[in-house]
Design brief:
CATH architecture: 3-Layer(aba) Sandwich
Structural class: alpha/beta
Distance between the termini: 37 Å
CATH class: Alpha Beta
Order of helices and strands: HEHEHEHEHEHHHEE
Radius of gyration: 17 Å
Strand order of the largest sheet: 3-2-1-4-5-7-6
Bound molecules: S-adenosylmethionine
Number of domains: 1
Helix content: 25-40%
CATH superfamily: Vaccinia Virus protein VP39
Largest sheet: 7 strands, mixed
Strand content: 15-25%
């Protein structure tokens, strides 16, 4: 999978998320062996950067479709990064990381009631039907003091080069006009995170359009 980082057709997802790497470094200042997660790995650009930042310390958990996480785990192992755990789901229509996160959250309630992650980067489908449950679980899975970073705060189906109705008319039968026009991640943040006193927003330095949003759990 990592060989795709230099292929022109993958250019849009070949650069690591700088904010994720910055937050990972911040976590490492106080936790020598942190547990981090990336939900939605793409071609592994940020996963590789997180593995390099961890430099074989702690554990990196990766969530995505089975074919993606299996391939990336093997590639990272080939580079000497063996501290990678994968959680996979199938490609069935309603299967997703939301479900696998929910199963993990229920297990964590028993095994690690104080939470298991110091940092989670949530960067999956940015659609409410998957990401609402995922955000609920990420909140609970974070340890106190942990960071949650959500990608695509400004993303909408209407703006998406691949999903917008002109490119993909079937979205008109799948989503309402409101669901096409509004950002699902912004909706999730406003309902589940902005109003939760246990989550403090961490400024990321955006001047106008906010592309990502980060929180710290108290
Ligand atoms: C934008 S990419 C992630 C990019 C990556 N975080 C990075 O920084 O390079 C979104 C990812 O979400 C995953 N995804 C979307 N819907 C999913 C679903 N229902 N189940 C599992 N993974 C899903 C895709 O397979 C894809 O890898």
């Amino acid at each position: 999978m990592l060989e795709r980082h230099t292929m022109p057709r993958y250019q849009a997802i070949a650069r690591p998320c700088a904010e994720a790497v910055d937050l990972a470094k911040r976590v490492l200042e106080t936790h020598p062996d942190p547990v981090m997660a990336e939900v939605g790995i793409g071609i592994g650009a940020t996963s590789l950067a997180l593995a390099q930042t961890l430099d074989k310390r702690g554990t990196l958990w990766l969530f995505d479709y089975d074919f993606r996480v299996n391939e990336l785990q093997a590639d990272l192992a080939g580079l000497g990064y063996h501290n990678v755990e994968i959680v996979s789901n199938s490609q069935r229509t309603f299967d997703s990381y939301g479900w696998t996160l929910a199963m993990l959250t229920r297990r964590c309630r028993v095994d690690q009631p104080g939470g298991m992650f110091d940092f989670i980067y949530l960067d999956g489908a940015h659609l409410y039907q998957y990401d609402t449950l995922a955000a609920v679980c990420c909140k609970e899975l974070l340890k106190p003091g942990g960071y949650l970073l959500l990608d695509d705060y400004d993303w909408t189906i209407a703006k998406s080069p691949t999903m917008r109705p002109s490119q993909n008319p079937s979205v008109l039968t799948e989503y309402s006009e409101e669901q096409i026009e509004l950002s699902h991640v912004e909706m999730i943040c406003s309902l589940l995170l902005d109003t939760d006193p246990a989550f403090e927003q961490i400024p990321l330095g955006y001047r106008d359009v906010e592309h990502r949003r980060a929180y710290r759990k108290s």
